Amino acid sequence: MSITPETASQHKNDPAVVCCLAQAGTVISPADLEDPAIFPDLEDSGLLKIPANVLTIGQVLGKKLVKTVDALTPITPDMIEGGEEAVKEIEEAVPAVEAKEAKVVEAAPVKTAPNVIRIHIEEGKGINLEIPAIVATAPAPEKEAVEAKEEKKEAKIEDRVKRTLVMREFEVKEVRLGEETSFENGVLTIRRSLMEDALKADPIAKKMEIDIITPDNKNVFTNTIMDVIPIATKVEGPLGEGVTHVMSGAVVVLTGVDESGIQVHEFGSCEGIIGEKVRFGRPGCPDENDIMIRIHVTIQGGTGMERKGPYAAHKACDAVIQEIREVLKKKPASEAVKVTEYKDVERVGRPRVVLVKEIMGQGAMHDNVILPKEPAGVLGGRPNVDLGNIPVVLSPNEVRDGGIHALTCIGPASKENTRHYFREPLVNLLAEDEELNLVGVVFVGSPQINEEKFYVSERLGALVEALGVDGAIVTTEGFGNNHIDFASHIEQIGKRGIPVVGVTYAAYQGQLIVGNKYMDAMVELNKDKNGMESEILGDNTLCPEDARRAVAMLKAKMAGVKILPPSKKWDQSVVENNQKLVDEKYKA
Predict the structure, then answer these.
(1) Cα distance between residue 443 and residue 356, in whole Å
(2) How far apart are CA 72 and CA 74, in angstroms?
(3) Looking at beta carbons, which pairs linking 562-566 to residues 24 or more positions away fall under 8 Å?
(4) From 78's CA, which of 7, 106, 393, 456 has a CA 20 to 30 Å away?
(5) What mean pLDDT do residues 368-381 have?
(6) CA neighbor of 61 nearest in space, from 18, 23, 20, 92
């Protein structure tokens, strides 16, 4: 596959290999050369072997071939006109700039108008400068006036707090099923009959089972995990400000199958022993000591791959959580075991940055709910598919207050669950970094059709430009189809002169299928030793350590620091070395 002049410029120091049969006498152009990006694959397959004396693309462009060569032949000095001499770099002669000596002449006083000083420079061919004499002859202010005058102090620029969110945590020590829903003395009781009542939320939800998995009993089978959902509720104000109550020590785990027993998932599922199929402690997963309230929903047969099927399971699950929210709202502030205050801050004078999070929006089982009425809820929110997947801006606090409910059923290892957004590491790190001014978090859906992908991506580029930012980070979950628009997002931002960093799982199984010149600062999320979709929940998702690398890379790029290109193939040691460097800075 031939390359463009732009690609040739990017890879001018890479080996020159002809892409097709090239006849003697051909003047080499980019159209005659193979793309260096695919060299590793060609070498692995035995189709290409690059010799030590191969010339670079920059050395051969414009040179004439003296022999006919087959496709995928590396170009060596004996193949081009002039051989070695033709590729030697020639230093361009730089003409010396002669500094003309300026002739200094004495300025003679000339008769002028009152209060004007005129200086005549003879050598300058009659140039005349006129300066009001009042400026030169104004009397000095009296000493007393100088002493009395106060020195003007520079106004101090202070950060502006735009909104404040207070989160009160209430510890759950035990969960049980009972006659009515209550939360007293750390014991959460869930009404047993809710399993029937919650099905009224959507007729496609046919059956519900609720059981409790304690931290010391993880050796139990589970169907594939569709979502992990925090239990939180608004007490004062809308999402992103006011007061929110949240339960700690317990989390909802939603699982699902259809009536024929088919797991509700797309690529990869994590059914199996729950202790082996979850990366406990990851942002989107239960923590090691969490009590898991497992809500298992059976949906109408054949709807698992349609939008309505998974959505019905989420709505039924949310009906259960809503009843728990109602008792949580009533807890007095004095019973909270922890209170955290989050602020949306405008850090005046610091580089303006934006976080862009690409979320699934292909339809079918790929969707998300944006800004529900309750934290991490479903009701009242808007699915991004219904919004046309166009970019939607949330404040950092809206994200941290459960502004996204994840409906996506992609592979579990790289899936960002609802709890992930509730504890999103990049949002937290950027929002608390006093060297940066996080202006917002943009959520943009990934449509199915390429035409729609590029339309949405162009709107994202225009939005980011309008925000007037100095840098951006773009993340995505999953891999494959969504990498098309992920790459386009980076290009649309980068082409507007904005430094941008990309964050994704790629490694071995999720290798990027597209690219562009702006994808020169990428953060790898893989944590599987083989670089695979491991089918372990949360295995390859964005974690605090990844966030630190992404922020460090963005700061480096904004500062103009050169970022070295990656190795030709996935190499986890590069990730590990970068992590060591970054952790030294953050003292992690």
Answers:
(1) 6
(2) 6
(3) 563/520, 563/521, 565/520, 566/522
(4) 7
(5) 97
(6) 18
Residue boundaries of the structural domains of the chain: 5-92, 164-587
Distance CA 300, CA 319 (A): 18
234 has which bridge partners? 244
The reported pLDDT for the residue numbered 87 is: 57
Q: Which residues, other chains included, contact 474 with Cβ-Cβ below 8 Å and sequence gap of 6+?
A: 356, 358, 486, 489, 490, 493, 500, 501, 502, 503
Angle (CA) 406-268-215 rounded to 5° is 65
Compare 4 and 266 and report the one with higher pLDDT.
4
CATH of domain 5-92: 3.90.1210.10
Distance CA 201, CA 48 (A): 60
Strands (E), 87-219: 116-121, 127-132, 160-171, 174-178, 182-184, 187-191, 205-213
189-198, 460-469, 562-571: which range is least confident on average? 562-571
For 334-357, the pLDDT digits (tens) are 999 999 999 999 999 999 999 999
Q: Are 31 and 2 in contact (CB under 8 A)?
A: yes
Asked if residue 83 has pLDDT above 90, the reply is no
pLDDT attached to residue 269:
85
Phi-psi sector, 224: left (phi>0), alpha (psi -120 to 50), beta:
beta
| pLDDT over 50 (residue 177) | yes
Instruction: Report in angstroms the alpha-carbon separations of 253 from 180, 186, 256, 477, 532.
Output: 21, 20, 10, 19, 24
- Catalytic amino acids? 409
Angle between the 482-494 and 450-466 helix axes, to the nearest 10 degrees?
30
Q: Give the pLDDT band of residue 273 (cuts 50, 70, 90).
A: very high
The angle at the Cα of 474, spanning 472 to 478, to the nearest 5 degrees, equals 175
The average pLDDT across 67-73 equals 92
Residues facing 33 on adjacent strands: 18
Nearest to 248 by CA among 422, 394, 406: 422
Name the token pair of 405.
């409910």
DSSP code per residue over 73-106: PBP-GGGBTTHHHHTS--PPP-PPPP-PPPPP-P
Q: Find, among 215, 277, 224, the residue nearest to 254 by Cα.
A: 224
Q: The tokens of 296 are what?
A: 């298992």
Question: What is the overall mean pLDDT for the chain?
Answer: 87
